[in-house]
Amino acid sequence: MALDAGWARRWVAESAAAIAAARDDLTELDRQIGDGDHGANLDRGFRAVVAKLEATPAPDGEAEQVGAVLKLVATTLMSTVGGASGPLYGTAFLRASKAASREALDVSSVVALLEAALEGIEARGHATPGEKTMVDAWQPAVEAAAATGGDDPVAVLRAAADAADAGSTATIPLVATKGRASYLGERSAGHEDPGARSTALLLRAAVSAADA
Ligand code: ADP
Ligand code: MG
Ligand code: MG
Predict the structure, then answer these.
(1) How far is residue 122 from each of residues 131, 139, 158, measured CA to CA in Å?
(2) I need a labelling partner for 125 at 20 to 30 A (CA). Which of 114, 115, 159, 176 fits?
(3) How many structural domains compose the chain?
């Protein structure tokens, strides 16, 4: 399965479906250690992205670039999500779009895409691993992707999604030192970070889109 613009469009659709299905769970996680809006924020954002993409057909007569789809995701998330996660995911997808200005992604460009997304989140939020944020899902995802090797870009994505999943679960015992959850101090321990969980869902959707 080529990781081309068709895949990127399916990634958006799969992400929107996964976020809609998990909306209440994400909201509940954010209710525990935040303000209870993460599910609603992302659901609103990804519905808008789907609508925007449907209204933006692939260009006539030339192959659509993966980065063009991801750029549309970025600008739409930035203008519709709000909160902390809107600018963070917006910057992630914007940087990823620049790393993906090609018709299809090979192994090294999937790694570059994920690295760019993480760098964008770190530049925007100044969080480092272990602060109980979405970085704790993205960082192991990038590490696993870079370590995968081989020549199957979908295998790289799968390794990233698995690592993000484990990274998100591993936020449970952490004490938050960035974002709204940090206001709770020690009481933030014992709950999974909502942004780390949504990251794991988005990366899993990237794999499902490739398997479709
Ligand atoms: P808000 O906190 O403004 O209500 P959301 O609920 O949509 O925004 O998103 C909260 C998530 O954003 C957190 O679970 C965390 O993963 C992420 N987050 C918050 N601040 C930062 C930061 N400085 N760096 C990285 N991620 C962050
Ligand atoms: Mg919130
Ligand atoms: Mg909020």
Answers:
(1) 12, 10, 23
(2) 159
(3) 1
Phi, psi of 105 (to 5 degrees): -100, 130
Kindly state if the Cβ of 91 falls inside 6 Å of ligand 1: no
- Ligand 1 and 88: CB distance under 6 A: yes
At 211, the amino acid letter reads D
Query: Does the C-beta of 124 come closer than 6 Å to ligand 1?
Result: no
List the Cα angle 96/108/168 in 5-degree steps: 60
* Distance of CA 38 from the midpoint of ligand 3 (Å): 7
The string of pLDDT tens digits covering residues 180-195 is 999 999 999 999 999 9
**Ligand 1, atom 12: nearest CA belongs to which residue?**
85
What's the domain range around 182?
3-211
Q: What angle do CA 171, 45, 107 make, to 5 degrees?
A: 65
User: 10: CA distance to ligand 2 center in Å?
Assistant: 27
Contacts of 60 (CB under 8 A, 6+ apart): none
- List of residues 6+ apart from 128 with CB closer than 8 A: 122, 135
The CATH number given to whatever domain includes residue 167 is 1.25.40.340
User: Which residues of the chain are under the pLDDT cut of 50?
Assistant: none
